Amino acid sequence: MSAAEQSKKWLGKLTRLNPATGRGECRGKAPHKPLLLLCLIDMVEAGEFPSRAFTRSPGLMLRFRSYGALVVDRWPNRLDLRLPFFHLSTQGFWEAFDAQMRPAGSPDICAVCEMNSELFDQLVDAGFRLKARVVLITKYFDVSERIALFESLGIQGGGSSPLPSGRIMEEAEEAAKRKGRSARFAVRVCSEYRYTCALTGYRCVTGDGATIVDASHIEAWADTQNDDPTNGLALSKNAHWMFDAGLWSADKDLRVIVNTHAFTEHGPEAFRLGSFAGRHLQFDPTANLRPAGEMFRRHRQRYGFRV
Q1: What is the per-residue DSSP string for 265-282?
Q2: Hey, what long-range contacts does 93-97 have (CB within 8 A, 24 or more apart)?
Q3: Domain boundaries along the sequence of the chain
Q4: Percent of the chain with pLDDT over 70
């Protein structure tokens, strides 16, 4: 079979995912399968998918959660990654195994998947990835979700049907785009900082790929709507809250400065914010992304730091 024939075959399979139909508060077709495939395509493009074998890694969990947030209006139930992770194996996209690499018979024991070699070879091609994304988004998502997903993936136009004209619809379209940009920001910041808190240097990843960090804006999004990754830090929940409250910042050399007059704290020294004063921000050695110093200058200015 030629490459063109294989491309046509797999694009056709993407139109026949047979997702379940929602009930109750969940409307339309279940988004689990197309979202998982979009996440995997994203990981291939980002170089996070070096072989056909894959697990529920931090990168996959982050993308599935971030892109899943774009469909919460019609599918409010928590999206369970285990379901498409296993069930797409029954449709020939990959083989599913348990932790001991024995064939998996249910979502609960499915730990490792090995992608079909033909599909993996197709995903190496940028042209196929674009076509696959367009097929998945236009086939399985409603108009506002399409706008948000195309925006999150940086795909201009994308074949998405525009919303009807009029001010209200224009505002709805812009809101969808903002959601898409927010999802892209979260994915890039957390993954490119290797899921490591910039304040503490702490990295914690569960067996299912969930991580301790959030994507934080340095210069407040409400002020600038700046979703450039250089305006971001990966921070644990406490560090994120304290940063947004103006309790700490960083100087031009990326050393932590603490607004000690703005709060009181008690507890073990290792957990006190004051103990981080003067330390450099912590970045994983393999992380290439770094924050822009200008963003910290504006953050310091916003909260009255005298540095």
Answers
A1: --S-GGG-GGGGTTPBPP
A2: 93/13, 93/37, 93/119, 94/52, 94/119
A3: 3-187, 213-303
A4: 95
